[in-house]
Design a protein that fits this description.
The complex is a heterodimer of chains A (82) and B (692).
Chain A: E1 5-7, E2 16-22, H1 26-34, E3 42-47, E4 54-58, E5 61-65, H2 67-71, E6 73-78
Antiparallel strand pairs in A: 1-6, 2-3, 2-6, 3-4, 4-5
Chain B: E1 31-38, H1 44-52, E2 57-60, E3 67-75, E4 78-84, H2 96-108, E5 112-118, H3 122-132, E6 139-144, H4 146-151, E7 155-156, H5 158-165, E8 169-171, H6 180-192, H7 206-219, H8 229-238, H9 241-250, H10 253-265, H11 269-286, E9 289-290, H12 299-307, H13 312-354, H14 360-397, H15 399-412, H16 421-426, H17 431-437, H18 444-453, H19 460-474, H20 478-504, E10 513-516, H21 524-558, H22 568-575, H23 577-581, H24 587-595, H25 602-610, H26 620-627, H27 630-642, H28 647-657, H29 660-688
Parallel strand pairs in B: 1-4, 1-5, 5-6, 6-8
Antiparallel strand pairs in B: 2-3, 3-4, 7-9
Classes of the chains: A alpha+beta (82), B alpha/beta (692).
Chain lengths: 82, 692
C-alpha cells in the first residue's frame, strides 16, 4: 500500500490509520506516547465532525484530542477492509 | 526517607539487583507500607475505599495542592499503612501528579506497590507497570475490571500473565468487592518474602543501549540519592523535565554540555522508549489475552453517539445541568431554609433567652457572631452535598469527561481545559463547590486558573441580592438588568480568564488530550465517600475561617458604641466614601458591600439596618429608591456581582490553592475589578446623561 502521511484530523469517522510521526514539543509527545500513540500503532477514528475535538480509539482506549493536537499526529491511512 | 542502598550503578536497567533490605526478618514486623498506584479510570479509588473504609485520612501532599489519601487495614496481625498515589499514566514528570507518585516510590520506598490495571485496556494500563518495574520496589498487580473486559469479549488468563511477568497477578472486580481478599494476601506474601521478587523487566532497544550507557557514564557519581543512575539516564533520554533540571544543576557545565548534545541528537527518544515498552507489554500479554477479531459496538459507543455529539451532546449537558439545579432548588433550598429557621435562628433565640441576664455584648457575640457564622456553615451544607454528590456521580459513571469534551472548544478560548466547565458551572449554585471541584482539572496551571475565575460565576446568593434590589430600582426592567448583570459577570470571567492565562500564567497552551472512560454503573460507596470527605474538608478548614471572620465582622459592626452607625465598620465605609462618590454611592452602601464578605445575603440585611428610619411601616424599598439614582444603583449591583466572594469561598480558595498569596491576589484582583467596573458604569452613565 502506498502511503502518504496525513494529519490524524483528516481521517474520517470509522476509518483506521497507523501512527507514523508525532510533531510538537517533548512534553506533548511524551503524553501521547504514554497513552499509547507510538509509531506503528493502529488508531480507529471514532468521531470526527471535521471541526472541534475528535475521538479516537487507541489500544482499547477512547482518547479525545483537540483538533490542534490531532494535526500534530501524522498517520498513514488504512482502508477499512484491511 | 530510609538510607537503603541504591541499586548498583553498573547493573542494567533490565535487571537491577533486588534492593537489599536493611532490616532482616521483615516478616516479623507488624507494620508495612503499601503504595497504591494505577492509571486514571482503572478503579483505583474503589480499591482504596474497600481496603481502608473510613480509616482514610485526606490531606495534601507536603507543599503541594494535590490531594493525598492514606488509610490503614489490618491483616494477619500486621497493620498495613496504605498510601493512595495520584492516578497517573506514567512515571515521567509531565505533571505534578506524576512527579509526586514517582518521588514517593523512589524516596519513601514502600514495602509493596500495588498497581491496579484495567483489564479492558490491559496494554495501555500496563504501561505504568512497565515503568514501575524499572524501579526496584516489589509490585503486586491488581487486574481489575475483568467483568468489563469480558463484556467486551476480552478474556485474560491471570496465571499466564503472572507467569509471563513473574510477579503476583490478582484478578478482581473491585466494584463488586471481588478479589480484595486475594489482593491483601498477595501483598502479605510479597511483603514477608521480598527476596522472592524477581520480575521480568522491560529492556532497552539495542539502538539506544549504547546511548544510554554513554549517558550513564557521564553522569556517574553525580546522581543525587536516592535516584538510581541507570534510571536517571533513561529519564534524561525520555526528556523528563524534573530529572533534566536536577541533573543540569548537579553536573559541571562541561559534563552537562556533553549530556545536552547527546539529548539533542536523540530528541525523539521518548517515542522509541515508549514504543519499546509497548512492544514489551505486547509480548507479555500475547499468551494471556484473547480478544475478539472484530470491534464490538458497546454501550459506551451507543451512548456516546449522543453524549459527545456537537449538538446532541450540548442538549444532554443542558438536560443534566437542568436536573442538578432543579434538585438544588426543590431539595437543597428548602432544606437550607429549614436549617436556618429551626437550627440557626432558633439557636440564636435560645442563646438570647438563656443568657438574658448576661452582658449585651456577650449575647450579641454568641447569637450574632458565633451562631451567625456557624449557622452559615451549616446552612451551606445541603446545597454543597447536592453538588458534591452530582460531581461525584458524573465523575464515577464516566460522564465528566464527555462534558469536558463537549465544552472544550468554548473553555479553550480562555486557556481553560474542558474539564473546568463543570466545576465552574456548579459555581452558579455556589462558588464553594466550584473551587473545590477544580480538583478534577488536570494540570496545575489550568486548575489554578479555574479556581481564580470561579468567584466570577454569579452564585445564587448574589442573584438573590439582585432579585431583591433590581425591582426596587428598575421596576419592570428588573429582569433585563438581572440578565445583563449575569452577562456582565460571564464576560468579565472570560476577560479575566484570558488575561490571567496570558499575563500571569504564561499563556501556556493546554493540550487537550483526555481519556474517555467506559461508562459504568456508579458505585454508591465511592460517591458517598467523596461527598463525605469534601464536606468534612469544608467544615473543618473553611468552617473555622468563616467563624472567625464572622465574629470579627460582627465585632466591627458593634464596636465601640454598640450601634452600627457609629461602629468601626461604618468608619471603614466612610473611609471608602471618596471612592463611593465616584459611583454615586454613600458610605452606607459601602458598608453593605463590606458586610457581603461574610455572606452575600448580608447586603440586604445591612441595608435594612442602615436605612431603617425608625418609622413604622417605612419600607426599605421606598427609602432606597429615594437615596440612589438608577446609575448609582446599577453601579452598585454590578459591583456586588464582581466583589470579593464571601468568606466561605475565600477560605476554600486558600484551602485548595494551599497559598495565601494566590488567595490575596484573587481578592485584590476582584477588588480592583469590581471598583473599576462600578466606577466605569456610573461615570459612563453620567457622561451620556442616563439615570442621574
Amino acid at each position: 500500500m502506498s502511503e502518504e502521511r496525513i494529519p490524524l484530523s483528516a481521517i474520517a469517522s470509522g476509518e483506521v490509520a497507523v501512527v507514523r510521526q508525532l510533531a510538537g514539543g517533548r512534553g506533548f509527545i511524551s503524553r501521547l506516547a504514554t497513552l499509547g500513540f507510538t509509531l506503528g500503532v493502529e488508531v480507529n477514528m471514532v468521531q470526527n465532525f471535521g471541526h472541534g475535538p475528535l475521538i479516537v480509539m487507541v489500544r482499547d482506549t477512547r482518547v479525545a484530542l483537540g483538533r490542534g493536537e490531532a494535526m500534530k499526529v501524522l498517520v498513514g491511512r488504512m482502508t477499512n477492509d484491511q | 526517607m530510609t538510607n537503603d542502598q541504591i541499586p548498583n550503578p553498573k547493573s542494567q536497567i533490565r535487571n537491577p539487583k533486588p534492593e537489599t533490605r536493611t532490616e532482616p526478618g521483615r516478616s516479623v514486623r507488624n507494620q508495612i507500607t503499601v503504595a497504591l498506584t494505577g492509571q486514571p479510570n482503572v478503579g483505583k479509588s474503589t480499591v482504596f475505599n474497600l481496603l481502608t473504609g473510613l480509616s482514610q485520612h485526606v490531606g495534601n501532599w507536603p507543599g503541594k495542592t494535590i490531594e493525598q489519601k492514606t488509610g490503614t487495614y489490618h491483616h494477619n496481625g500486621i497493620t498495613v499503612q496504605i498510601v493512595d498515589l495520584p492516578g497517573t499514566y506514567s512515571l515521567t514528570a509531565n505533571s505534578l501528579e506524576e512527579q509526586i507518585a514517582r518521588d514517593y516510590i523512589i524516596k519513601e520506598k514502600p514495602d509493596v506497590v500495588v498497581a491496579i490495571v484495567n483489564a479492558a485496556a490491559l496494554e495501555r494500563s500496563l504501561y505504568l507497570v512497565a515503568e514501575l518495574l524499572e524501579l526496584s520496589v516489589p509490585v503486586v498487580l491488581g487486574l481489575n475490571m475483568t467483568d468489563v473486559a469480558e463484556q467486551q469479549r476480552m478474556y485474560i488468563e491471570p496465571h499466564v500473565l503472572e507467569a509471563a511477568l513473574c510477579l503476583p497477578v490478582v484478578p478482581m472486580v473491585a466494584s463488586k468487592n471481588q478479589g480484595m481478599r486475594e489482593l491483601v494476601e498477595a501483598v502479605d506474601r510479597l511483603a514477608s518474602d521480598p527476596d522472592s521478587y524477581d520480575p521480568r523487566r522491560p529492556g532497552i532497544r539495542e539502538d539506544h543501549q549504547a546511548v544510554l550507557a554513554h549517558l550513564q557514564k557521564i553522569i556517574a557519581e553525580q546522581v543525587p540519592e536516592p535516584y538510581p543512575e541507570n534510571w536517571v539516564a533513561l529519564k534524561l533520554l525520555e526528556g523528563d523535565r524534573e530529572i533534566t533540571r536536577i541533573m543540569q544543576e548537579r553536573l559541571s557545565p562541561e559534563k552537562w554540555e556533553q549530556v545536552h548534545s547527546i539529548l539533542m541528537k536523540h530528541e525523539d527518544a521518548i517515542l522509541a522508549v515508549a514504543g519499546a515498552r509497548y512492544e514489551w507489554i505486547g509480548r507479555m500479554v500475547r499468551a494471556a489475552l484473547v480478544r475478539p477479531t472484530f470491534g464490538q459496538v458497546t454501550l459506551t459507543d451507543r451512548v456516546d453517539r449522543y453524549a459527545t455529539h456537537p449538538f446532541w451532546g450540548l442538549l444532554v449537558l443542558v438536560g443534566i445541568l437542568g436536573l442538578v439545579f432543579w434538585l438544588t432548588y426543590t431539595v437543597g433550598a428548602p432544606l437550607q431554609e429549614l436549617l436556618d429557621t429551626y437550627l440557626v435562628q432558633a439557636g440564636a433565640e435560645w442563646v438570647r433567652s438563656a443568657l438574658s441576664g448576661a452582658p449585651v455584648w456577650l449575647v450579641g457575640l454568641l447569637a450574632d457572631g458565633v451562631i451567625g457564622g456557624a449557622g452559615m456553615v451549616v446552612t451551606f451544607l445541603p446545597i454543597l452535598i447536592i453538588f458534591f454528590a452530582t460531581l461525584g456521580l458524573l465523575e464515577d459513571v464516566g460522564y465528566m469527561a464527555r462534558a469536558a469534551y463537549v465544552m472544550d472548544r468554548f473553555m479553550h478560548l480562555m486557556g481553560l481545559h474542558g474539564k473546568s466547565f463543570l466545576p465552574l458551572f456548579l459555581g452558579f449554585g455556589c462558588n464553594v463547590p466550584a473551587v473545590m471541584g477544580a480538583r478534577v482539572v488536570e494540570g496545575q496551571q489550568a486548575r489554578l486558573l479555574t479556581i481564580l475565575v470561579a468567584p466570577l460565576v454569579p452564585c445564587t446568593a448574589r442573584m438573590a441580592v439582585v432579585a431583591v434590589l433590581a425591582p426596587i430600582f428598575f421596576g419592570r426592567h428588573a429582569a433585563l438588568v438581572s440578565w445583563g448583570l449575569i452577562g456582565l459577570s460571564l464576560v468579565m470571567l472570560a476577560i479575566v480568564g484570558i488575561a490571567l492565562h496570558e499575563l500571569v500564567l504564561g499563556g501556556e497552551h493546554v493540550a487537550f488530550i483526555m481519556e474517555l472512560p467506559l461508562y459504568h454503573l456508579p458505585n454508591a460507596r465511592t460517591i458517598g465517600l467523596s461527598v463525605w470527605q469534601r464536606s468534612v474538608a469544608f467544615l473543618k478548614k473553611a468552617g473555622s475561617i468563616i467563624l472567625i471572620v464572622s465574629v470579627v465582622v460582627w465585632a466591627l459592626s458593634v464596636l465601640p458604641g454598640g450601634e452600627i452607625e457609629s461602629s468601626y465598620l461604618a468608619g471603614m465605609g466612610r473611609l471608602l466614601s471618596p471612592l463611593g462618590k465616584l459611583m454615586g454611592l454613600g458610605w452606607r452602601m459601602m458598608v453593605a458591600l463590606l458586610t457581603s464578605f461574610v455572606a452575600k445575603e448580608n447586603t440586604i440585611a445591612t441595608l435594612g439596618v442602615l436605612y431603617s428610619t425608625g418609622e413604622e411601616g417605612a419600607r426599605l424599598a421606598d427609602t432606597l429608591s429615594g437615596v440612589l439614582t438608577p446609575a448609582a444603583a446599577l453601579a452598585f449591583l454590578a459591583m456586588q456581582m464582581l466583589f470579593i466572594p464571601c468568606v466561605a469561598v475565600v477560605a476554600t480558595i486558600r484551602q485548595e490553592t494551599g497559598s495565601w498569596r494566590w488567595t490575596a491576589f484573587n481578592i485584590a484582583l476582584l477588588l480592583v475589578l469590581s471598583f473599576s467596573v462600578g466606577i466605569a458604569i456610573y461615570q459612563g452613565a453620567v457622561l451620556v446623561g442616563w439615570g442621574v
